[in-house]
Write a structure and sequence with these properties.
Blueprint lengths: L4 H22 L1 H11 L2 E7 L2 E8 L5 E5 L9 E3 L1 H8 L5 H6 L3 E3 L3 H17 L4 H13 L20 H4 L3 H4 L11
Parallel strand pairs: 1-4
Antiparallel strand pairs: 1-2, 2-3, 4-5
Helix pairs in contact: 1-6, 2-5
Length: 184
């Protein structure tokens, strides 16, 4: 995959269209929920430094329209590629990502619940849908790895010793405790 921002935006738009078409062909509850949640809405998403505005309209004939924006001021949903990969791999839940700050979302609670339901259904469907599996694999192999927040190699990490004992209040440490088992 190429590395210019516009090319990544176009590739992300292509994958989103393929995702929508795959879900449309599959039908079922995931498609109905997706249409109900996203139809008539516009959202600006960012994965790493790739920002894309997506508008969904048309009800059952859902169509996506894209604007390639470069301004981070209007982002509604943001995560890095590592977080996205962790969610798809089942290593992180969407609510866990929101709670620990790996996912940024600026929407109302009802919309977040709807997005959560759609994502959960898509992930569940991907266990049995080969087209979704192919789409995830293509994304995983093509999208460059995020380098912004990778952990340091183990060789240069300094271990922290005594963390727990250092956080015990001093008055608790001064309590004298008699041995439970006493030899007579």
């Amino acid at each position: 995959m190429t590395n210019t921002s516009t090319e990544r935006q176009k590739q992300l738009a292509t994958w989103l269209r393929r995702l929508i078409e795959t879900l449309r062909l599959q039908g079922g509850e995931t498609w109905k929920t997706l249409v109900h949640i996203v139809s008539g809405k516009t959202v600006t998403i960012a994965i790493d430094d790739t920002i894309l505005q997506v508008s969904a309209e048309g009800g059952e004939l859902l169509q996506l329209n894209f604007k390639y924006v470069a301004s981070p001021n209007s982002i509604d949903f943001c995560c890095d590629v590592r977080t996205f990969r962790d969610i798809v791999a089942g290593k992180l839940t969407m609510d866990g990502g929101l709670a620990n700050g790996r996912i940024y979302a600026r929407r109302g609670f009802d919309e977040l619940l709807g997005i959560y339901e759609v994502v959960t259904r898509i992930l569940a469907d991907s266990a049995t849908n080969s087209q979704l599996q192919e789409l995830w694999m293509e994304f995983d192999q093509s999208w460059p790895a995020s380098t912004g927040n990778l952990p340091s190699p183990l060789e240069i990490q300094k271990p922290t010793y005594g963390y727990f004992i250092n956080n015990v209040p001093e008055d608790v440490l001064e309590i004298e405790v008699e041995p439970y088992l006493v030899d007579n």
